[in-house]
Amino acid sequence: xxxxRTQIQLTEEQMRFLRMVxxxxxxxxxxxxxxxxxRAMADEKPGRREQYARASxxxxxxxxxxxxxxxxxxxxxxLGETGR
Length: 84
What we know:
63% of the residues lie in helices and 0% in strands. It has 4 helices and no strands. It is mostly helical. Helix 1 packs across helix 2. It has a domain of 33 residues.
């Protein structure tokens, strides 16, 4: 994993908080920031229920340009053909 240097501006209160967490956890402030960013990223990811809801909206939304009508029962054979 490549690490990118960046510069940010924080309030004094935010910086005090980061220093406190870093001191408590015995890690650099940069590590504390990375952990909080990772947590925020995880919170932004759609949950399994939302992923299924999105996928179900796509089911049947497209037509096969070749007119195949048996995709639901023969999907493995069609997918196998794409690997050839």
